Amino acid sequence: MTSTERVMAAIQFHQPDRLPRWDDFHAFGDFTSNWRTWKGFSGDVEPADHYGIDISMVMSDEGPFFSQSGVIDKDGEYEISRDSWGRTVRQRPSGAYFMETIETMLPERSDLDRLKFEDAADDRRYQEYLKNVEAERGAGRLAFSKIGGIYCRSQFMRREDLLLVDMATDESFCHALFGRVGEHLTRIALEELRRTDSWETGMWVYDDSANYQAPMFSPAMWEKYLLPLYKC
Questions:
Q1: Alpha carbon distance 214, 151 (integer Å)
Q2: pTM
Q3: Number of domain units in the chain
Q4: For the domain that residue 91 is a member of, what is the CATH number?
Q5: Given the DSSP bridges, would you call strands 142-148 and 203-206 parallel, antiparallel or unpaired?
Q6: Is 113's pLDDT higher than 90?
Q7: HSE (CB half, 13 Å, CA atoms) of 147?
Q8: For residues 76 and 159, what is the distance between their CA atoms, to the nearest angstrom?
Q9: Which end of the chain is least crowded, N or C, by CB within 10 Å?
């Protein structure tokens, strides 16, 4: 079986020749270069090729303020940058994918009305995404398109602790924020699927609404705020 055949069999509840493999080596900072040194490999050897990875995850620059993103300043071994969701974050460039949020776009709930989301169909969002899809398919892997989830991306804009309080105290604001973010992400998702003709595989939606110990909020809140948007 090819990787595509293997994965498609599995998600259609048919038995593949083996379990499809997935890993995200790039989420761990300098892992790939350290791995090459440890294994004694040259600089062109990729872990995904070496271990027979079947699945890759690819995404566009999905944030509503993507043209405003970039590095702002340096702080010793850290970078201060603004991401496409408007967050100002502090992060070690060569480290794993973790960061400290310094500032967000919605310090006050009333700020939501003034925010203008940039066009989801802007070609600049998809330049690297299309290159990555082509490269992964060329390597024989099935490239799954991905978007962030509505809660996760909303707390990028509002800040996690503030948004959790909002969910308990300001229903109208949360419906407005989740609605705008959900509509924007839907447009991004459709653009990704259209531009890569990935309708058959669908899309991964990453919504970090729990930790290792418990959900971030109750199932009742999820059903009230998020389920209607995901069902649309």
A1: 16
A2: 0.91
A3: 1
A4: 3.20.20.210
A5: parallel
A6: yes
A7: 27
A8: 25
A9: C
Q: Which amino acid is at 72?
A: I
pLDDT score of 42:
92
CA distance 64 to 49: 34
Answer whether residue 28 shows pLDDT above 90.
no
Q: Which amino acid is at 221?
A: M
Determine the structural domain holding residue 188 and report its residue range: 3-231
Backbone angles phi, psi at 57, to 5 degrees: -115, 125
Kindly calculate the radius of gyration of the chain based on its CA atoms and give it in whole angstroms. Answer: 19
61-70, 81-90, 124-133, 199-208: the lowest-pLDDT one: 199-208
Residue 232 structure tokens: 């649309």
Alpha-carbon gap, residue 135 to 217, rounded angstroms = 39
Residue 119 has pLDDT above 80, yes or no: yes
Query: Which band of pLDDT confidence, cut at 50, 70 and 90, is reported for residue 16?
Result: very high
Pairing type for strands 88-91 and 100-103 reads antiparallel
In whole angstroms, give the CA distance from residue 126 to residue 199. 17
